[in-house]
Amino acid sequence: MKTRKLGWISINLTVLAVILAGGMACGRLVDKDRIRVAKIGDKYITRGDLFRLLREMPDDERPAIRNRGDLLRLLNQHIDERIKIPLGRQMEQEGKISVPFEVALESFFASKQPDEEAFLRNMWAMEVPKDGQMTPLMKIYDMTPERLQFQKDFIRDEAERLRAKMLGDAAVEFLAAEAYRAGQLTVDEDTLRQEYRIQQTSLKIPEKVRFQAIRFDAAQPDASEQAMALRQRLDSGESFDQLFETYRQQPEAEAKLQVLEVEFVHGPDGEERFRGVWEHLSGSEPGQVIGPIFLPDFARLVQQNGRRQRQIIPAGYVVLRVLEYQPEQDMPFEMARPILLRPILIAKMMDKLRQERGVEVYDDALPDVGQAMGSQPVGL
To answer: Is the pLDDT of residue 81 over 80?
Structure first.
């Protein structure tokens, strides 16, 4: 009887030891999460805060964290946003800066892959039926009124989140420009010229072309045939000016965007989408008629209600006449000066704002992540 009792005590002591060991391990893990890695004013940022931030980031924004340097960049980005976003909201209320919701919404759409972008644009354009009945377009997307409302709320929330970041960036740039004009921030000539030498190969005046186009909406089943028929009329001797004017005067021509005068700049944005277009436009000459060619949807700035707004031109087949063509050129230093000056001033202003808010970063408190971590803070 006595032996069995001692055995029972031995077993329970073993279990207790395991529990205590586990508790101590958890305690160590919790303690690691409480390690302070930065401070803003009198508020600290811990390892746990940083890992929580990483987990909660949208998948398409979450950076790969492979080493301590990646964590440090994430930490500094987080600190900057905690300074910039409240500052942007404050300066918007003061009327010093403004970022229209439409601009943020367009940037949100443009940040997505083409298929997702098209889907989100369609969701935003659709109206939630008040009677709760599914429209034919909603049936195509298998979208109930509740799902559609959820999608629209998601788009609005994401655009507002992006707008808050854009306001923060605008606030820092506004303050940087003010401080530069007041002589509080300076950049010496040698620094600018050194930066110019470093970036000279990438500082270019981009290729651009201005043209008039007669456009046939790609949504029309016979759009390419209409464009080809128009080209045949031009090849038979009809005047582009006369045909352009004829189409311009057609009822609802402006609403259908059937005639356009636009300037295209050959930049990195959308380069792949417009590769086929630039194969036709590059090296063209004023007066040259080109097409029909397929022109993907694009945005242009138009004057509406006394201010410039972005207008989306849907994809279409066009026959165009070149008005002006400018090949790519090297950018001279004087033209590059404001391009070089802007990020330097913004960085200096951001440093100033961090100093004013008592920012401290404890690099050595960040964990040594290791190469196997990937993009998740596993095992830290």
So the answer is: yes
